[in-house]
Structure formats: structure tokens, C-alpha cells
Amino acid sequence: MARKSNAETAANPGRLKQIALTYKMTSKADPKVGLIVAGVGIVTFGVFLAIGFLIGHPVYLGILGFLVAFLAMAIVFGRRAERAAFGQMEGQPGAAAAVLDNVGRGWTTTPAVAMNRNQDIVHRAVGKAGVVLIAEGNPNRVKSLLAAEKKKLARIMPDVPVHDFIVGTGEGEVPLKKVRTTLLKLPRVLPGDQITIVNDKLRAMGDLMSNMPIPKGPVPGRGMRGQRPR
What pLDDT was estimated at residue 131? Predict the structure, then answer.
């Protein structure tokens, strides 16, 4: 029990520090986040307290109002923090890959299966919807990368549905914050065993990251491990 108590005590400062860091990052992109969150909490608590006085139970409704107000503040802060994070990531190379890492269970994601010298990138996700190619970069340049990947997939697995979209804010593009929901809304047509087969075929085919040449020579810092200071 003592160990568990010590672990919880040690975890709380870390959690508070993380919340403070998230608030600091959010306030840079959304300076009014503190006022808005506080306003939501005060209004929610005030409404419950007023109802409590009207029905003759201010203490009970006050306690309930405090809990509901805290929950409402957490929800509003979480949504604005998420929006601020997406705003900072928008337009950054590899931003879509970061979103795909958190797409959820049932999906196997592979970043940067194709890339050109201009840093236009195509990522891949495999799930019950089939294969999804997610491109980020210049729409005119990245279309050729998508076409090449779709041709490759059609050659090795012609019966598997392949979807594709470009991440961006232009017409016909998917905003970064909607990448996850766009994937989850796709129709589910593949059973679990077929997903495994598709992943095995893609793994055998390889991708850009696995086919990249590995630089020869010692890894920096590895040779220093066995040396002792004189």
C-alpha cells in the first residue's frame, strides 16, 4: 500500500506539470482560453446553484454544480487544446503521420511509404476499410506519388479497396483535424483475417523507410560507452 501511495504521489506532480505545459502551449495559439474555460465553469456552477435555491436544496445542487462545472471546463479546455495543437501542426511536414499514430485500434499505419525531394509525402493505413493512402504536400506534385502507389497496390492486391485523400485546406482536401474521423467513417469491408493477409503482402513488398540505405560506420556515441574518464 505504501508503494502504491508513493507512486500516486509521484505521478500527481507529473500530471499537473503536463496540464500546465498544455495550457501554456494552448494559450500561445488561443490567448482567451483561460477566460473562456473559467467562464464556462462559473456559469455552469451559477446555474446549478440558482436552481438549488429555487427548489430549496442549494447545498446538494451546489456540490453537483461544482462537479459538473469541473467536467465542463475539462471538456472545453481539451477541445481548445486539441484545436490549438492541430493549428500549430498544420502545414508541417509529417503532421499527418503524427495524427495517424493515434488513429486507434484496428488500423496499421506506415509513415512515408513514398516521398519526393520536395518533401511531399504519402502515408499508408490498413484497416477494415482496406488500404488508405494519405498524402501531404503540394496537391499537384503529390498526385503523381498517389498514382504510383495505387498502381503498385493494384498489381499485388487487385481485390482490396484503395482509398486516397490529400491533407490540406484547399478544395477537395481533408483538414488535418479531420484525418482521423475521415478514416473511421470509411465503410468496413475487410474481415480481420484478410487484413492480416494484406499487411503481410505490404510488408513483403517493403516501403520507402525499410528500403532506405543505412549509413555505414559506427553510430555516434556508441564507441564511447566502454571508455572510462582518465
Answer: 93
Q: Which amino acid is at 154?
A: A
DSSP letter assigned to residue 28: H
The per-residue b/e assignment along 203-230, b for 16 or more CB within 10 angstroms, e otherwise, is eeeebeeeeeeeeeeeeeeeeeeeeeee
Q: Which amino acid type is present at position 155?
A: R
Label the pairing between strands 162-167 and 130-136: parallel
Contact 45, 65 (CB under 8 A): yes
By the 8 A CB rule, do 40 and 74 touch?
no
Q: What is the distance between the alpha carbons of residues 46 and 214, in angstroms, rounded to a whole number?
A: 62
The string of pLDDT tens digits covering residues 82-127 is 777 666 666 666 677 777 877 778 888 888 888 888 888 899 999 9
- How far is residue 43's CA from residue 143's CA, in Å, rounded to a whole number? 49
Q: What is the pLDDT of residues 70-82, one digit of tens each?
A: 999 999 888 887 7
Which grid cell is 10?
509521484
- Beta strand extents in the chain (DSSP E only): 108-115, 121-127, 130-136, 162-167
